């Protein structure tokens, strides 16, 4: 399986795209993290890649085929999408919400059956939220709801999974749980995973590749350790940082520590 973007350009107007000339290719089992400051267009880009929005220029290829070659049901058997968790969801039970993920495999008037429910319970148990099966989605925590949305996407058995800030607004434990799930889906299931995130350390932890989006519309894309440098983070986020390698249980973990707010070049020039 492959996910490829060729000469992609998207945004709200042709005169002011949020990103242009975007090119990358992901293979089976690879994870890509999309990083950038608030308002740089990460969600818009993700929506364009999956076909919710249209490219201004360029295209998305899934296993060598453009999205336009797929019918809606076939496409959503290939792609899974996990939006940001919102607390104002309808009062579905967790089971009913997860079963919505089977819609791509059912006919127009098809209804989930016993086999679908068994599969849903298996996914819920894998994510360690089986005990929530009969709870209402508007009566569980944001972290639990995020896991429910992941379960819904997984029930479609996609080959490529897109996640929009899956670990935002969560405590440390739930962040690590979700990062571990993404890592296992890539390693054990061979799934391609692409996630928007605000956390460079999460990219360092689980990603093979990174797309760094600047507020100016520029971008860098490539292997995570090649792209995530102190200079690149300073230019993108206007934050001074230092990298450090930490040994834990005979493993080396690379981490990025924010030190101070960087002075923008324009402000520094004006001060002189």
Describe this protein's structure.
With 272 residues, the protein is α/β, with parallel strands linked by helices. The chain has one domain: P-loop containing nucleotide triphosphate hydrolases (Rossmann fold, 3-Layer(aba) Sandwich). It is 34% helix and 29% strand. The strands form three sheets. It has a six-stranded mixed beta sheet, sandwiched between helices. Strands 2-1-4-5 form a four-stranded antiparallel beta sheet, covered by helices on one side. Strand 11 and strand 12 (251-261) form a beta hairpin. Helix 4 packs across helix 5. The model is unreliable at 267-272 (pLDDT under 50).
Features:
alpha/beta; 12 strands; 272 residues; disordered C terminus; 34% helix; 6-stranded mixed beta sheet; 29% strand; Rossmann fold; 4-stranded antiparallel beta sheet
In CATH, the topology is named Rossmann fold
Query: Which overall shape is indicated by the principal axes computed on the Cα atoms?
Result: globular
Number of helices: 10
- Classified in CATH, the superfamily is P-loop containing nucleotide triphosphate hydrolases
Quick recap of the structure?
The chain has one domain: P-loop containing nucleotide triphosphate hydrolases (Rossmann fold), CATH 3.40.50.300. It has ten helices and twelve strands.
């Amino acid at each position: 399986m492959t996910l490829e973007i060729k000469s992609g350009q998207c945004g709200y107007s042709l005169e002011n795209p949020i990103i242009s000339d975007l090119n990358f290719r992901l293979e089976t089992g690879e994870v890509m993290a999309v990083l950038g400051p608030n308002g740089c267009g990460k969600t818009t880009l993700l929506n364009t890649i999956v076909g919710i929005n249209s490219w201004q220029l360029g295209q998305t290829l899934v296993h060598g085929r453009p999205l336009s070659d797929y019918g809606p049901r076939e496409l959503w058997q290939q792609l899974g999408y996990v939006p940001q968790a919102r607390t104002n969801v309808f009062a579905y039970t967790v089971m009913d919400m997860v079963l919505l993920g089977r819609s791509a495999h059912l006919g127009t008037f098809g209804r989930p059956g016993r086999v679908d429910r068994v599969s849903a319970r298996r996914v819920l148990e894998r994510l360690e939220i089986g005990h929530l099966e009969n709870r209402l989605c508007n009566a569980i925590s944001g972290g639990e709801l995020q896991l429910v949305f992941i379960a819904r996407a997984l029930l479609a058995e996609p080959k490529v999974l897109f996640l929009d800030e899956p670990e935002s607004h969560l405590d440390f434990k739930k962040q690590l749980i979700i990062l571990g799930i993404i890592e296992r889906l890539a390693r054990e299931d061979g799934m391609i995973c692409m996630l928007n995130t605000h956390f460079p350390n999460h990219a360092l932890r689980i990603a093979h590749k990174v797309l760094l989006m600047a507020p100016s519309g520029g971008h860098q894309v490539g292997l995570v350790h090649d792209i995530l440098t102190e200079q690149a983070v300073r230019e993108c986020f206007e934050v001074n940082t230092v990298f450090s390698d930490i040994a834990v249980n005979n493993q080396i973990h690379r981490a990025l520590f924010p030190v101070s707010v960087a002075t923008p070049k324009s402000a520094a020039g004006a001060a002189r």
